[in-house]
Design a protein that fits this description.
Elements: E1 24-28, E2 34-37, H1 39-45, H2 49-52, E3 82-87, E4 93-102, E5 111-117, H3 118-137, E6 141-145, E7 151-154, H4 156-159, H5 174-177, E8 182-183, H6 192-202, E9 206-213, E10 223-233, E11 239-248, H7 250-268, H8 275-286, E12 293-299, H9 300-303, H10 310-314, E13 319-326, E14 341-342, H11 349-356, E15 360-362, H12 370-374, H13 376-385, E16 389-397, E17 400-409, H14 418-455, E18 466-473, E19 482-491, E20 495-506, H15 508-526, H16 531-552, E21 563-571, E22 576-582, E23 588-590, E24 597-598, E25 603-604, E26 617-620, E27 626-630, H17 632-636, H18 642-653, H19 660-671, E28 680-687, E29 695-700, H20 706-720, H21 727-744, E30 749-755, E31 759-766, H22 786-793, E32 796-802, E33 805-813, H23 816-819
Parallel strand pairs: 22-25
Antiparallel strand pairs: 1-2, 1-5, 3-4, 4-5, 6-7, 6-11, 8-9, 9-10, 10-11, 12-13, 12-17, 13-14, 15-16, 16-17, 18-28, 19-20, 20-21, 21-22, 22-26, 23-24, 23-27, 27-28, 29-30, 30-31, 31-33, 32-33
Helix pairs in contact: 7-14, 8-14, 14-15, 15-16, 18-19, 20-21, 21-22
């Protein structure tokens, strides 16, 4: 009998269930009768040797083959694994894997049959296939580092990254295989060698570690890998080393980075409606993530907020540099400064991109390109920096090219790829929409600002009652121009109206509403209404405007209309002011000898609320003081706390004896930032009270002869004032007004003459509230011509209602030659 230990079938049979060291061994003679039966055969089939020796092997078959073992002839290849179903001694069938060998005649037997459990053999074959696949076929790179963290083995995928014979890398460390690489995953050591040392010591595996670097086989291209590490141990627990699994995820990583960049761009580009800032945000996204340098050039019409046409797009000479950004702080690439005109030669990539609206990608710039030869400055800069790739993408929105973005690389050795171009095109498309929105905002803002400035007073009119200065500063935000306004309105009898208002909202609608309200204030002020009554009428108007807007825009915010307003009347004769407020901050009164005070004005509801009364309050206005009226944007521009703003306002108004322009400049400098978030309007007025000798007042008797006395008093006073040239006109006006008061009104009757710098005012008061009306007298009538005569001789005339009657007044222009030295 030949024993298994006497057979030497090769060194590679270890571990195989069909190897002679592990399989059940059966020897057969030429007739296929059993001549040898190993203990493993007895363990596998349950038969002791004495029961099967000398018996045909076919008797153990559970199939229908012949008893003498002809079924062995069905083995596909002698010595190759086959399959048989044998009968176990207990009676059940057993699927086995078999291998039949023909032995030399000198061995004393004819055949050697190896048997093993089929399932065990199939599992072993699967493990062998897996090991073979990992070693030779798998795309996952496997590298085994010994306990000294030196390379001990690598599969075929790992060896592809190492040029030449693999044996030259045995015993080398990870840093030698991938020099200059970098761990990208947070929370891990920066060195892979240190990481493997921790895995070797702790046994804790590391999964999906992102690692960036270059391979020895491809040193010009940067790769990103997903690495996993686990400790290797034998059956006794002895540490054998660390296994590294590596998967090249460069494309996936770049796709993820592109997605991150797109998300970042969506959140960052266009955060405001400022065109310059939008262009900067676009450039900051691309450098250094995509390019080493970027220049954003826009057509001049875009920067100016104008609409584009085909002619403006075709003119490359009308392009201006909006922004540029580089990985180098000294910007050696720059040829044109921001805001400068950019001139690109015909045939250049920028010229082609602007003309066609399509991107241009030059992987390599040929120095002999005609446009580079013509543009010597740019050609020299490109050669000096070693720029090797050049991309120009259009900035298009609404099918109009507004400019181009030029990207360059020289620090990164990899040229721009088509994937990079697609990414930049997507970012440029988003940026173009934001730039176009900013352009349209600039246009609307310019329109609203032009409208508002046309509605606001261009110059403060010279007035005897006050000296005034003002500032209007539009908001510098995407909210647009607001509806702040101010006015100085000349009123009768040496009085002046001071008004400041603020319309809710921004943009053209707010500016238009402001214009309507300002016109209404002018009309109501001409009626000489008290401040509280004027605000009541203005409140009614705002309510009507709101109803109209709501009807036009029932579902949108465009229907919202509201405003605040402060209106006051200063009387230079009485030196008092009457104020009423509709939700507006109180006026500030700056004294020369004491701190600034804020007038205690009851704050009524904002205009448009309706149903609530407004209250007027009289305030004494001392000599040598300054009144300041302002919108809330002045006190909330720098700080959200209005109290802090009021404290700063008080500080800025100190020393009211300064020139008004100096005071307004101080207010602007102290209270306002460079770019105020809201519109700001403020009015600074220095009252100019009339000297006592410029006013004459008489109470008159309520009798017909009073008109003659009034003429005499007028003539006498005009002589004192050296206005004798006005005596005829003034006496006629006074006579007619006093006569009308006695005939058609009731007492008491009084006469007041007021001399201002260039006017003479005649005012007659009575106790009746009925206003006179000028009419055309018929030919036969003796009366009815008094007011007509007054209107002919006076520069203007009108009626003021008071609490106890009315005042009819008329103004005459005083000759400048006679009055120039009268007032101080």
């Amino acid at each position: 009998m030949v024993t298994a230990s006497a057979l030497a079938l090769g060194p590679d049979d270890r571990g195989d269930p069909l190897s002679v060291t592990r399989a059940a061994v059966v020897t057969l003679d030429d007739r296929k009768w059993v001549t040898g039966w190993s203990p493993q055969a007895e363990q596998l089939l349950g038969y002791p040797a004495k029961e099967v020796l000398g018996q045909p092997i076919g008797g153990l078959s559970a199939q229908a083959e012949g008893a003498n073992g002809d079924w062995l002839g069905s083995q596909p290849n002698r010595g190759m694994p086959g399959r048989m179903v044998l009968r176990h001694r207990s009676g059940h069938s057993l699927r086995t894997a078999t291998a039949l060998y023909r032995l030399p005649a000198a061995a004393g037997t004819a055949y050697l049959l190896l048997l093993a459990d089929a399932e065990e053999h199939a599992e072993w074959q699967l493990r062998q296939a897996v090991l073979h696949g990992l070693a030779a076929e798998s795309s996952v790179a496997l590298t085994i580092y010994g306990p000294d963290l030196r390379v001990a083995w690598a599969n075929a995928a790992a060896r592809k990254e190492l040029p030449g014979e693999f044996t030259q890398y045995l015993g080398r460390g990870e840093g030698d295989l991938y020099p200059g690489s970098q761990v990208l995953s947070a929370g891990h050591p920066s060195s892979v060698t240190q990481l493997m040392s921790e895995v070797l010591a702790s046994g804790q595996s590391v999964v999906d570690l992102r690692y960036r670097g270059r391979t020895l086989a491809d040193p010009d291209r940067e790769h990103v890998w997903s690495l996993s590490y686990y400790r290797l141990q034998d059956a006794t627990g002895r540490t054998l080393g660390v296994c590294e699994e590596s998967v090249d995820v460069t494309d996936l990583y770049r796709a993820q980075q592109r997605l991150i960049l797109l998300n970042k761009a969506a959140a960052r580009i266009g955060s405001t409606l400022d065109l310059d800032r939008t262009a900067h945000e676009f450039a900051e996204i691309l450098v250094p993530e995509i390019a080493d340098f970027i220049a954003v050039d826009l057509i001049g019409a875009v920067l100016d907020g104008r609409e584009l046409d085909a002619r403006s797009v075709a003119r490359t000479g009308d392009m201006r540099r909006a922004v540029h950004r580089s990985v180098r702080e000294d910007l050696p690439e720059v040829v044109v400064p921001p805001g400068g005109t950019v001139g690109y030669a015909e045939g250049s990539p920028q010229w082609q991109c602007l003309a066609s609206g399509h991107p241009v990608l030059n992987a390599v710039l040929a120095p002999s390109s005609p446009w580079l030869v013509e543009d010597g400055v740019r050609s020299t800069r490109m050669r000096e920096l070693g720029i090797h790739t050049h991309m120009v993408v259009p900035l298009r929105a609404r099918d109009v090219t507004m400019g181009v973005a030029t990207l360059m690389r020289w620090r990164s050795p990899e040229p721009f790829t088509p994937e990079d171009q697609l990414l930049v095109e997507e970012l440029a498309a988003r940026a173009a929409v934001c730039i176009d929105n900013a352009r349209r905002f600039i246009r609307e803002r310019h329109s609203a600002l032009m409208l508002q400035r046309s509605l606001l007073p261009h110059e403060m009119p010279a007035h005897a009652a006050v000296e005034a200065a003002y500032r209007y500063l539009p908001a510098d935000t995407e909210a647009g121009v607001g509806g702040d306004w101010f006015d100085v309105l000349p009123l009768a009898c040496a009085r002046v109206g001071l008004v400041v208002g603020d319309v809710v909202g921004h943009g053209l609608r707010a500016a238009a509403t402001m214009g309507r309200l300002r016109t209404a204030v002018h009309t109501l002020a001409d009626l000489d209404l008290p401040p509280d009554e004027l605000l009541t009428h203005l409140d009614d108007l705002v309510q009507r405007l709101a109803e109209e807007a709501e009807t036009a825009h029932p579902f949108g915010v465009e229907g919202v209309v509201g405003a605040t307003c402060l209106y006051g009347i200063y009387d230079s004769v009485t030196r008092r002011a009457t104020f009423a407020s509709a939700g507006h901050p109180p006026p500030a009164l700056a004294h020369r000898t004491k701190p600034v005070e804020f007038c205690d004005i009851p704050t009524g509801p904002p205009l448009g609320v309706g149903g609530m009364p407004f209250e007027a309050v009289e305030v004494d206005i001392p000599d040598d003081c300054v009144l300041a009226l302002y919108t809330d944007g002045l006190i909330t521009a720098s700080e959200s706390d209005a109290d802090i703003g009021l404290a700063r306002l008080s500080f800025a108004l100190a020393h009211p004896d300064r020139p008004l322009e100096e005071i307004t400049g101080t207010l602007e400098r102290i209270l306002l930032p460079d770019h105020p978030p809201d519109d700001v309007a403020f009015l600074v007025a220095r009252p100019r009270p009339l000297p006592a000798d410029c006013v004459a007042f008489w109470r008159l008797a309520f009798e017909p002869e009073t008109a003659g006395r009034a003429r005499a008093l007028t003539s006498e006073r005009l002589t004192q004032w050296r206005l004798a040239d006005l005596s005829f006109s003034a006496e006629l006006i006074v006579s007619e007004l006093v006569t009308n008061a006695i005939r058609h009104a009731r007492g008491p009757v009084s006469l007041r003459l007021i001399r201002t710098e260039n006017r003479l005012i005649c005012a007659v008061s009575d106790g009746s509230s009925t206003s006179p009306h000028m009419r055309r007298a018929k030919a036969g009538e003796e009366g009815g011509r008094g007011l007509f005569l007054v209107a002919q001789f006076a520069a203007r005339w009108g009626t003021r209602h008071t609490t106890d009657g009315k005042i009819i007044w008329a103004e005459l222009l005083a000759p400048a030659a006679e009055t120039g030295d009268f007032l101080p």
